[in-house]
User: Which sequence fits this backbone?
């Protein structure tokens, strides 16, 4: 059991360091040699966990569509927003999630492994369709089109936020995006009841991890 | 004069073909050898126009912040929307514009050349600030934050649109994005007078190029 735990930790360590390399130099220039140097592990240890660089890229993308921290809410729309806020909170802290976006916008990696955008669009479409059935959405709002627009907008806001010189916080920027978009698709009554705070994700994750005192930013 | 025209056309041909290579294989893997093969030009001819691959990447980025087709409108907000619609119309038709986005999301190219996102954010901020002074925006709308969100959202919608399997039209997707965002920032009176049609850019460009019959899609 202890041995298995260690194996899981080592696998995660390898994947995180490869993700950092993907982020820093891109898919093509990231090498096993650089990974050996970063981790101090032997090639044998690396190949015990992953067959190849391609295998690591696939593992990065497999971790990209995550619902960690998500819990059932009174409004399906809140769950849909929570997905985006949770990812915005986690991405600056988790190189593997950043690398998944990086691989999606890299022409070679994209050709080899595809992207997880269609999966994200499907997840959003499903939640928004339920919200629509529940009467949370305005009549003209098209769940598939909105989900598509928001997966794109979320991705681009992340990419631009990390480049702009100002010290921008991704959670703030993504919360601002939802605040811009939601009035066009949600009924006013539901809108007034949604929590679009940039600190919401942190609270959700603390609650899930059994933290007793959620930080109070407001 | 004829000679100069030919030089301008050759320069454009080189830049377009290098842009196609950047789009297909990424900055790092794009080579002068592949460019020679694509264009049929000699290395001497290429180096007459550009000193290096780096020089071509810079030239691609220099063409990225473009106001082609833009003309003064009754509302500054219409000009701001027109910028985004014009770019959405042109990008699928112009490899150089696509390559500018591609270089911006490539870690190595970004480190070497930066991106034009700060310039786009500044252009949007300026137009939105004028719109605010003119009373076109709602009181709470922050020009800098909205400009940042829309530069990000625009970029991401473009990246995701070209990946999704469905035959999506970028002009339609970007028009949809503005239709989602604008009700949160514009006064209802101005909103009713804006043209957010996906066919608007085509009409603006035809008018500029002296076309007499604009296509009528509606």
Assistant:
């Amino acid at each position: 059991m202890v041995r298995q735990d260690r194996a899981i930790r080592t696998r995660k360590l390898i994947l995180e360091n490869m993700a950092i390399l993907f982020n820093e130099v891109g898919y093509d220039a990231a090498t096993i040699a650089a990974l050996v140097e970063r981790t101090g592990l032997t090639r044998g240890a690396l190949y015990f966990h992953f067959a190849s660089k391609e295998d690591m890229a696939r593992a990065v993308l497999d971790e990209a569509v995550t619902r960690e921290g998500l819990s059932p809410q009174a409004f399906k729309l809140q769950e849909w927003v929570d997905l985006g806020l949770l990812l915005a909170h986690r991405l600056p802290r988790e190189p593997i999630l950043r690398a998944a976006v990086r691989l999606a916008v890299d022409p070679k990696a994209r050709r080899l492994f595809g992207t997880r955008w269609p999966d994200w669009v499907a997840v959003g479409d499903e939640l928004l369709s339920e919200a629509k059935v529940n009467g949370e959405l305005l009549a003209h709002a098209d769940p598939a089109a909105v989900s598509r627009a928001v997966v794109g907008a979320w991705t681009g806001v992340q990419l631009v936020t990390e480049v702009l010189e100002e010290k921008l916080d991704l959670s703030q920027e993504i919360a601002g995006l939802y605040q811009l978009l939601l009035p066009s698709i949600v009924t006013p009554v539901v809108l007034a009841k949604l929590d679009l705070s940039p600190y919401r994700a942190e609270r959700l994750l603390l609650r899930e991890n059994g933290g007793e005192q959620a930080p109070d930013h407001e």
Observations:
- The interface with chain A takes residues 23-26, 28-29, 102, 104-108, 110, 115, 117-118, 121, 145-146, 148-149, 151-161, 163-165, 168, 173, 176-177, 179-181, 183-185 of chain B (CB under 8 Å).
- Chain B is about 65% helix and 0% strand.
- The domain at 2-61 of chain B is CATH 1.10.10.60 (Arc Repressor Mutant, subunit A).
- Chain B has two domains: 2-61, 76-208.
